[in-house]
Amino acid sequence: MLMVSCVDVEESSNDAAGNTEALWRIMDEHYCFFPEKQQTIGVDWNDVHQRYMANVSSSMTRTQLFEFLGKMIGELKDGHVNLSSSFDFARNWSWKEDYPLNFSEELQRKYLSTDYKIASGMSYRILDDNIGYIYLSSFGSGLGDGNIDEILLYLSQCDGLILDIRQNGGGMITEAQRLAARFCNERTFVGSLKHKNGAGHTEFSEPQEQWIEPSAGIRWQKKVCVLTNRSVFSAANEFVKYMKQMPQATMIGDKTGGGAGMPYSAELPNGWAVRFSACPMYDVEGNCTEEGIEPDIKVGINSTDKDDIIEAAREFLKK
User: Fold this and answer.
1) What is the pLDDT of residues 54-98, one digit of tens each?
2) H-type helices in the chain, by residue range?
3) 3 state SS for 73-117
């Protein structure tokens, strides 16, 4: 979710203990999901501080220190919490690695075939039952309004639309909003976000409402099924949150991966960069979507010769 800023960091010593303390403090004062992480996975950040400060050693090599700090922030199990150096990237992907994939490129090729069209990062075609199919693997590059117009115009003859965003790890939230705007005809309330306004774990601003304004371009008026799996994360998770409020949209597949915090960044005394969630986001009922969003119709892939999730969407759209 590419809305990145930086935070001010108090000066710490550039040694193993100083960098460990600096990383812990940065997270302590600015990370936004401590209440949720304590509730869902039992993380006590003060206990983390005691354990890691007791085990940090001045004899650590830079590789050992990097692994040590990566394990510390890894206790949060947040895909938006990363540590970067010139030689490695510490990350935690258990939010998707511990779940069924529910996606197969080999099976998908049976639907896309080889003559599908490509525009603005979207692969699309008309399936043999007159259902439109679009696959979007990322919100990382700009979605051109003209391209979206052309795609929706081409698919306008279809009886329904499948929008497949499985494996979409996110990108720019503005692009998720741009695409969602093609599925509403009036200003639509889709949720809210808060900003961290103090060092305490529960110090946030009042909720800032999120609205989707209808696009001035071509808008889809028929039924649409959005296909999801656990690898739908960050800005793609937000897109699912938006589409949940579109009356003609149905989510089919598996629970999304979450990642409902806008990432911010800071730098340790040794120059390593830490990136973390700082602005939590919520659905229309005020529920945090950090742990993912359940589909309307839960389906997994159990077949070897067909994509059960695509087939479920086709069947739903034919009704």
Assistant:
1) 999 999 999 999 999 999 999 999 999 999 999 999 998 888 988
2) 16-30, 34-41, 45-55, 62-74, 94-97, 105-112, 145-154, 173-180, 235-243, 308-318
3) HHCCCCCCCEEECCCCEECCCHHHHCCCCCCCHHHHHHHHCCCCE
End-to-end CA distance of the chain: 36
User: Which residue, chain included where needed, has tokens 């304004």?
Assistant: 213
Taking Cα atoms as reference points, which of 92, 149, 91 lies closest to residue 120? 149
CB burial readout 162-189, b (16+ within 10 A) else e: bbbbbbbbbbbbebbbbbbbbbbeeebe
* Cβ-based neighbours of 235, under 8 Å, separated by 6 or more: 1, 2, 139, 170, 171, 172, 173, 175, 176
What does DSSP assign to residue 159? Answer: S
The residues with which 134 forms a beta bridge, in sequence order, are 124, 163
HSE-up of residue 275 (Cα within 13 Å, Cβ side): 19
Q: How many CB atoms lie within 10 A of CB 245?
A: 18
Task: Give the integer Cα–Cα distance in Å for 272 and 89.
Answer: 10
Q: What number of residues does the chain have?
A: 319
Angle subtended by helix axes 62-74 and 45-55, to nearest 10: 160
Q: How far apart are CA 227 and CA 2, in angstroms?
A: 23
Q: Is the pTM of this model over 0.90?
A: yes
Q: Which residue has the tokens 């919520």?
A: 282
Q: How far apart are CA 64 and CA 17, in angstroms?
A: 13
For the chain, how many helices (H) and strands (E)? 10, 13
